[in-house]
Amino acid sequence: MRVVAAMSGGVDSAVAAARAKEAGHDVTGIHLALSRNPKSYRSGARGCCTIEDANDARRAADVIGIPFYVWDLSERFHTDVVEDFMDTYAAGQTPNPCLRCNEKIKFAAVLDRALALGFDAVATGHYATVVHTEAGVELHRAVDGAKDQSYVLGVLDEAQLRHSLFPLGDTPKTQVRREAAERGLLVADKPDSHDICFVADGDNAGWLREKLGDRAPNTGGEIRDETTGEVLGHHEGTFGFTIGQRKGLRLGRPAPDGRPRYVLDIEPVSGTVTVGPRERLAVDRITGDRLRWCGPALPAGTILDGPDVTVQLRAHGAEHRAVVRVGENTLDIELLDLAEGIAPGQAAVVYDGSRVVGSATITATRRATSATGGPDSPVEPTW
């Protein structure tokens, strides 16, 4: 096959490209220019988006012995990922820009261009596995559970999976680094990137404050205690908070019982941020929209309630046993294992064993029954 290898400048994508070539494919390496001025996002060799990363990718392609090009997707990236990130935070929700980048950039814009140019597939360094069966194509977790990235790939549909290669899905990360060194790739010891690529210093709130400007729904508001209604402090914008946050609240005084407070609710119109004890973060029900199926779409009315049905709510979070009900373009998820700090805007990815069934964007959560035995109101719209 003719394969485009997306090379970020990190060790994983370099080894994936090398393996694709070794498997007999006709491989061309590409690096995505996601900003016309890379320093406007961040500096330093940290995994993508920088000049250093582009140079690292080019050197790796030279060592592997494949052609290499840079594709400018900066305008598409800014519109589909950066603007979406800002809009979602401005709405009082919590986005996952890496998941959106996979959906809109790496497996939409890149794949569409690759197919138009006569390529057959796109190879990346993601830790996940594509399984071809008689019934179709399936996405599964990687062998290395600690590095598994199937969560952020849960937005891929069956057509995209048919043209996707994940050469590292069967390999532990430690072995990938050893292999990179044996192949003479200089990125063998390059640190992984963990921060949002377009936030220069990891200060999301500061970046949002600078970029949103007049687009922010409010420039300040109150921080209130859920139990007493007392105003505990003030803030400069709800975009600086996310559900479950504990640090950076700057309340000046502890709770009467001395325990820390957590963000329980964010109301972007009034600017009110509600805080309270950790146990009030527990959630037992979730709804979501923007359904994406990693295989055939499940019809409305389908109920997934087998012993292996789980839901993952964060990129490296735990699996929660669940009962999943499919509606008209919605998912209703009953969590058998409670989750904490779940915010609208995040993704809920549904699994059946190791197989990714699909995903939805969380629109509402319901807090678990309180300690007094009474039902709590939902964090977002009424069920």
Automatic annotation (TrEMBL):
Principal location class: cytoplasm
CDD domains for the chain: MnmA_TRMU-like
Chain ranges of the tRNA-specific 2-thiouridylase MnmA-like C-terminal domain: 284-362
Enzyme type, top EC level: transferase
GO molecular function terms noted in the UniProt entry: ATP binding; tRNA binding; tRNA-uridine 2-sulfurtransferase activity
Entry keywords, A to Z: ATP-binding, Cytoplasm, Disulfide bond, Nucleotide-binding, RNA-binding, Transferase, tRNA processing, tRNA-binding
InterPro entries from the UniProt entry: MnmA-like, MnmA-like_C, MnmA-like_central, MnmA-like_central_sf, Rossmann-like_a/b/a_fold
Active-site residues, record numbering mapped to chain: 101 (nucleophile), 197 (cysteine persulfide intermediate)
Annotated compartments: Cytoplasm
UniProt-listed Enzyme Commission number(s): 2.8.1.13
Annotated site residues (Interaction with tRNA) in this chain: 126, 346
GO BP of this protein: tRNA wobble position uridine thiolation
Binding residues annotated for ATP, in chain numbering: 6-13, 32, 125
tRNA-specific 2-thiouridylase MnmA-like central domain residues: 212-276
An annotated GO cellular component: cytoplasm
Pfam short name (any one): tRNA_Me_trans
Domain of life (superkingdom): Bacteria
Region of interest called Interaction with tRNA, as start-end residue ranges on this chain: 147-149
SUPFAM superfamilies recorded: Adenine nucleotide alpha hydrolases-like
Reactions it catalyzes: S-sulfanyl-L-cysteinyl-[protein] + uridine(34) in tRNA + AH2 + ATP = 2-thiouridine(34) in tRNA + L-cysteinyl-[protein] + A + AMP + diphosphate + H(+)
Family: Belongs to the MnmA/TRMU family.
Protein's job: Catalyzes the 2-thiolation of uridine at the wobble position (U34) of tRNA, leading to the formation of s(2)U34.
PANTHER family in the record: MITOCHONDRIAL TRNA-SPECIFIC 2-THIOURIDYLASE 1 (PTHR11933:SF5), TRNA 5-METHYLAMINOMETHYL-2-THIOURIDYLATE -METHYLTRANSFERASE (PTHR11933)
Protein name per its UniProtKB record: tRNA-specific 2-thiouridylase MnmA
Name of the coding gene: mnmA
